[in-house]
Amino acid sequence: MSDEIKGLNEECGVFGVFDATDASRLTYFALHSLQHRGQEGAGIVSSDGQQLYQFRNRGLLSEVFADKKDLAGLIGRSAIGHVRYGTSGNNVLANVQPFLFHFHDGDVALAHNGNLTNAQTLKSHLEDDGAIFQSSSDTEILIHLIRKNQHLSFIDALKKSLNQVRGGFAFLLLRKDCLVAALDPNGFRPLSIGQLANGAYVVASETCAFDMIGAKFVRDVLPGELIVIDQDGLHVDHYTTDTQLAICSMEYIYFSRPDSIIHGVTVHNARKMMGRLLAQQSPADVDMVIGVPNSSLSAASGYAEESNLPYEMGLIKNQYIARTFIQPTQELRERGVKMKLSAVRGVVEGKRVAIIDDSIVRGTTSKQIVHLLREAGAKEVHMRIASPPLRFPCFYGIDISTRSELMAANYSVTEMCEQIGADSLEFLTIPNLIKAISVPDGKNTPHGGLCVAYFDGDYPTPLYDYEAGYLASLKKQQAREVIQ
Amino acid sequence: MSDEIKGLNEECGVFGVFDATDASRLTYFALHSLQHRGQEGAGIVSSDGQQLYQFRNRGLLSEVFADKKDLAGLIGRSAIGHVRYGTSGNNVLANVQPFLFHFHDGDVALAHNGNLTNAQTLKSHLEDDGAIFQSSSDTEILIHLIRKNQHLSFIDALKKSLNQVRGGFAFLLLRKDCLVAALDPNGFRPLSIGQLANGAYVVASETCAFDMIGAKFVRDVLPGELIVIDQDGLHVDHYTTDTQLAICSMEYIYFSRPDSIIHGVTVHNARKMMGRLLAQQSPADVDMVIGVPNSSLSAASGYAEESNLPYEMGLIKNQYIARTFIQPTQELRERGVKMKLSAVRGVVEGKRVAIIDDSIVRGTTSKQIVHLLREAGAKEVHMRIASPPLRFPCFYGIDISTRSELMAANYSVTEMCEQIGADSLEFLTIPNLIKAISVPDGKNTPHGGLCVAYFDGDYPTPLYDYEAGYLASLKKQQAREVIQ
Amino acid sequence: MSDEIKGLNEECGVFGVFDATDASRLTYFALHSLQHRGQEGAGIVSSDGQQLYQFRNRGLLSEVFADKKDLAGLIGRSAIGHVRYGTSGNNVLANVQPFLFHFHDGDVALAHNGNLTNAQTLKSHLEDDGAIFQSSSDTEILIHLIRKNQHLSFIDALKKSLNQVRGGFAFLLLRKDCLVAALDPNGFRPLSIGQLANGAYVVASETCAFDMIGAKFVRDVLPGELIVIDQDGLHVDHYTTDTQLAICSMEYIYFSRPDSIIHGVTVHNARKMMGRLLAQQSPADVDMVIGVPNSSLSAASGYAEESNLPYEMGLIKNQYIARTFIQPTQELRERGVKMKLSAVRGVVEGKRVAIIDDSIVRGTTSKQIVHLLREAGAKEVHMRIASPPLRFPCFYGIDISTRSELMAANYSVTEMCEQIGADSLEFLTIPNLIKAISVPDGKNTPHGGLCVAYFDGDYPTPLYDYEAGYLASLKKQQAREVIQ
Amino acid sequence: MSDEIKGLNEECGVFGVFDATDASRLTYFALHSLQHRGQEGAGIVSSDGQQLYQFRNRGLLSEVFADKKDLAGLIGRSAIGHVRYGTSGNNVLANVQPFLFHFHDGDVALAHNGNLTNAQTLKSHLEDDGAIFQSSSDTEILIHLIRKNQHLSFIDALKKSLNQVRGGFAFLLLRKDCLVAALDPNGFRPLSIGQLANGAYVVASETCAFDMIGAKFVRDVLPGELIVIDQDGLHVDHYTTDTQLAICSMEYIYFSRPDSIIHGVTVHNARKMMGRLLAQQSPADVDMVIGVPNSSLSAASGYAEESNLPYEMGLIKNQYIARTFIQPTQELRERGVKMKLSAVRGVVEGKRVAIIDDSIVRGTTSKQIVHLLREAGAKEVHMRIASPPLRFPCFYGIDISTRSELMAANYSVTEMCEQIGADSLEFLTIPNLIKAISVPDGKNTPHGGLCVAYFDGDYPTPLYDYEAGYLASLKKQQAREVIQ
């Protein structure tokens, strides 16, 4: 899947640093390396030990902080930052994180990656009790829950609140004198701890942020943990012990940067292994192997090497796609004008090619790719997908809301192959996916410590607010399948 | 060489279309695919058969035409466009092309890729004669020469003028009723003709522009040719027959897009073959092969396949680098903050790696790359360059003005290896470069129809205005070499 | 006082319309005529009968709605709008009004002009009870008070809440099906009701907004009133009957537009009469009368006519002052570079002039004006101020927070004259101010229905949260006066 | 005439300074005070004694130099600047001045206020001779003429060239070592010399620029003069002695700032006298006098004083009109929404008013003003115009190109009064205009040293390129008049 596809995007990236010089500037660079996790908004809140400072806006990090003064204004030695993926409906400034709340007893800032499954229920109860929400995001609920328990210490109130929310979440909270990180009981979302040369701790959604700023990896945050970083150092605590690792497999397949290490596994290596196992499992009688740039190149080179076939650059992705780009008219599109991907005629002409993609969501891009390659003279086009068919929605932080959009939820592989126009189509099996990733911590856990619910519908938790709607959609689909 | 390096950049890309619907929009998309040839300015001039319309500005194409109305205002069925690389000194609007000149006997627009070697002499003569130049670019000279011959027909005046200029040039001229293309007698710069489904002709610096807009390749413009496209079709003419092909080898090595076909050779294939021949010529005893993204990936995969070694993603290039990006302070840089390239620890740690780059200009980037890889745990770093050492400046359209900046002009390969910090360093030989490219038209021509003067100092033409300065710099260097 | 002076600025302007076509566009034009009441932020919330839509930002109205789409998105037949004056400390987007609150039982929008005197106390109580405030403005308190009374109807909850807040306030609230206006028990701030030709009601801070949009004046909102406008028309209600008019006299002296009519008095006429009474009370033996543009021109012409002296344009205000204007360096300033006001040499040279200003805050501008006039050759400069000396802060919506800044709070008139460098200085007396304005409704009320507390310190209400600080500052000053 | 009217705008303002610290910043402030002379473009060229530096763009001065760096880049101790009025057709960057020309024998910059009457003829000759023009402005012709005479010294070539151009012009030229000013033989356009405290000379279109920067007035540039300012001081020279003063009377009536002194006459004083003479000549039986803000306020106060009538603020001009302002729809306009001017009901209701305007161009604004006043309740509206009827175009630098647009060229005063809807309409007579201004230098010159050709068609020079078109339009009109 080429990475422009809307509809399958990680919701966010978070980063935090405590007690380091240039804290907000470090956060800026760290967020820069997490930009692939969200391009619709960005923000930073800093603390100078007395007060919290916020700047955030819609757009890419470089756009948000286009005026240097805005970053310079975020003084202090601690900071948290956020890059956000937002669907069009709620892409308003009020939803851009980190959120900052002013209280007469101290400010609190909050950044969140994930999705709460009981948000509607909690929000409704809180509003009945007089609460006023400023955003439509579910993130704000946590702070209301905390404020409902002002009789407790902040950490105790936070622990109690974390036990009330459900779903996938990685929270960072900043107060004037501490940085707190918390992960959901299944560890759906990645969250790691690093350390700068001077000893200061940092927390990030992906380890690539550590490389960017010259920090060393320390450990992953584990399910159910509450990490408190203050002047006395790093304290590992738990708000629950009822945990079981189910890290999102899509982080390995598509979302995370190839250089990130999640639960001990380098993403590029996992992808290359997906390609190798795919080659073993579903070989292709072709002249060359081509990857869809950029996210499928690792898998493609694995497939090529395992097959002993040449790995070629048969597709080119234009590097200068901008937000403000004028789009081709429908007429120009029909006349062949293309914006993002081009097939390389001099490579594929007259050849049988295996094209490796990381996934198929709606199938639109796959269809275009096959068309592009044939137009450029490819004799045969065999598509190989380095993950299993996406058939079920995610409720823990990935934006696949409706099953009706997922091609594999509605068609058999044979039908998909036909619609896409490929000569053959094969997917990696779930066991091979789990084998390719091989999470060390996940050995004795269902699905090897991975969440593979998008492929098999076996969700690791109840679905709460989503349960009814999900069951209804399943029913509708079964009815449709019967009719077909 | 990673592609952010200033100091070795192609100067421009040009595109023209005659008699097609949506001419300026087609030009916009075509220029989009040529954006890698110049990011400092862009412009389009269109013709509606009566009048010419211009819009141009500094910046990327998407920035220049951020307001749709500006493109919509370029009405008519013919257009020429230009993307420009400009050095800081002359990066002013007045230099952004296409130029448009209004005359009481008809407008003329002009777009140019290349560099004239007798510009100063011609300009001086013309000024003495009362001419006033509006830009500091050498491009404008052509139009003054034409106007000096108003007694001749436009085409005859143009032919006469083309015989007065020297150097490397690909010119496009647009008048209300015709589009004209002209190439220098050595064909230093690439220029190709294509055709849309409806028969309309297009001209472009690279064939990737044809793929972008759904046009078919027709033929390359040949040295000394003057192509006139008007209502009667395409007319091939010559302004001189004293020609000899010497197409710039850097177009294959670095500049052009991998999917472009120049004089019959697909750039990706040439690069992959450079990698293969480099592997044969300079093997490395390593665990894996890594390419510098993005321009060296083709050569790296060729090297890996020929060596039967795994091809790995050991370096990651950040995709979100923006013009307005806040840069790390020196202190942060020293603490390890990096912006553009990251090494992938999980891939290279404990491994012996061969790193493939396309060229070395100043050596700064090479040094950083070796440092990055070692920091990420690479045990050995062997650098292999898929082209010969760059030792001489270019006078035909590539921005390498002074020898003092070229690392290979000042140091031996052994010294370079030491400075870069690699365990070994090897370059492709000139004969292998020529063999890897194998220009069909260049068989019986010196250097196989290629200009390789940057490597051996053997310029295919006299240097005119540059001669004295060049000889002086050579002398200074020889003196320095003697002292060393 | 020239109108660029910070430190004495009206805090806001509000406007509302119910059930009219183009409601948000009407609001935009109405706010345009209220722009003088606040330039730091602007916003509009509209209602289409089902839902509320918001757009707001920092900056001038024309900047906020620079993109037409943002206004076009505010659909529906009802709207409220706000222009905001903000001090630098709190000039953030979160404070730009109207505020919009989403509740599962219906949205509420809120726009406010004024200042609450018990805001800190109320906010603290509410936070202890779990409330979370999104802005630092006191406006938001009202909505929290309302939500604390969800068991009551909206109007009853609002009435109860209005009885809990203290100070000066003109509130507009918009719900999907009604528009509500409420004024404080002293009517400190102006608020008027108008009607469009088609019968739709509008509410505005000043009647000049009615002229702008072609509406007819209906009546002023009176102290303690609650006006509800819905599909059944306009309903006049009260939340309290314990009221006494004390309309801010600074509205007449400086803030309001000369064409606005407040409680039956046209502002220009009041100002002209201030000038006339000032001429009677404090004549000057001069050759001409000059007004400080633009706010003092009415008073100056009154003074000139009453004195039978020529009224001349002796000071020019530059019309092109922009926010982004580059300021003169200190050196240039000393060399005479001036930005905003110029004296007209050809008018004042060799002449004795009376210069009329509306007020003196810090005295800085007055000093500059006298200097400018003398530099341009004026032989004598007699300053006449068309209001009494400003000696006490305002707590009801005008930004004069500290006594230490007010020149007249710290110096006698003789000392002021000396510091300003004028040949004489005289102020209008309080009785003459009251006589000049002559509010018809204020006849049997203290100070003729006006608040003149800035002049005599006689505040019409207790000061609540400000009491302690105010008394302390008085004490400090008395101590200083004793020492002096 | 309210000052938003297009169609009667001065074309430009120029300023120059030689050998002063902060030259470009001084120029910036000086241009700021000349902004009323042109809002469509602005630019500055500076000289550091070696080289010339340019920055210019479309828009207001504050917009053009929004980024401080652009002004800071204009280093050196000498500079010229320009603010430009441009008609829509030619409002392109290429036409924004000062123009800067690079020659191998030294750069020349040029700023121009005025209009050449033989531009087309000269341009055509020059193009036939090979010249290439970069702008559509007539200003550039001068530099081409100079370059045609390279055998002469620069000053001699300039003198010769000035004798070849015809029309109204005030030229400033900057070279690395001198500043040159030249005025046309009739002195149509104002141009004055001033001096800074340190002795450095400045030149400006209006003396208000001197007040802005703390310079003293020295003398006016006289018709036919060539002023050269260099390291040796100021040299007064002539390029012709065949001169006769005919300074544009519109400069006094409308264009210039009231504080400027032109040929010894303060503009405000002239305007006030126009009002006084108008009152003597055409009294009105009214209750008050009102001026159209801002340009007619001087005349209105003169009229009021002479008539012994109150001078009232019956019309308000909105101060916040911005370029990007959203305009009312036609429907809203009909419903009474107004943007720029409001009538003050509380002032005019039930009153007989005399409304003073400086001129009538198309009559559209006059009609609106009468309508506004009647709508606000004025019982009678008597319009008095403080200048004679505008009946003929200007060819010397004011943008009134066609007679068909001038109301007074097509209708009698009685007809105009009827169309405008006033109760009476009277204009100042030409003799009274001349008497009101009373240019000291113009005593023994036709029309008192003024150009009044717009009123009587008596042009002080032949019309050259415009002659034929002008005569044709006169004929057409006479034909129309006969028919009527």
TrEMBL record, chains A, B, C, D:
Q: In which pathway does it act?
A: Purine metabolism; IMP biosynthesis via de novo pathway; N(1)-(5-phospho-D-ribosyl)glycinamide from 5-phospho-alpha-D-ribose 1-diphosphate: step 1/2
The Gene Ontology terms for molecular function here are: amidophosphoribosyltransferase activity; magnesium ion binding
For whether the record's keyword set contains Transferase, the answer is yes
Q: Write down the EC number.
A: 2.4.2.14
Residues binding Mg(2+) are S295, D357, D358
- Transmembrane stretches in the record are none
Provide the top EC class: transferase
Species of the source: Liquorilactobacillus nagelii
Under which name does UniProt file this protein? Amidophosphoribosyltransferase
Instruction: Report the HAMAP family cross-referenced here.
Output: PurF
What InterPro entries would the database entry show? Answer: GATase_2_dom (IPR017932), Ntn_hydrolases_N (IPR029055), PRTase-like (IPR029057), PRTase_dom (IPR000836), PurF (IPR005854), PurF_N (IPR035584)
**PROSITE patterns xref list:** GATASE_TYPE_2
User: Cofactors per UniProt?
Assistant: Mg(2+)
On cofactor binding, the record's note says: Binds 1 Mg(2+) ion per subunit.
Catalysed reaction(s) here are:
5-phospho-beta-D-ribosylamine + L-glutamate + diphosphate = 5-phospho-alpha-D-ribose 1-diphosphate + L-glutamine + H2O
> In this protein, which residues make up the domain named Glutamine amidotransferase type-2?
12-232
What Pfam families does its record include? GATase_6, Pribosyltran
Presence of the UniProt keyword Ligase in the record: no
Q: Biological process GO annotation list?
A: 'de novo' IMP biosynthetic process; purine nucleobase biosynthetic process
Q: Family assignment?
A: In the C-terminal section; belongs to the purine/pyrimidine phosphoribosyltransferase family.
- Provide the active-site residues from the annotation: C12
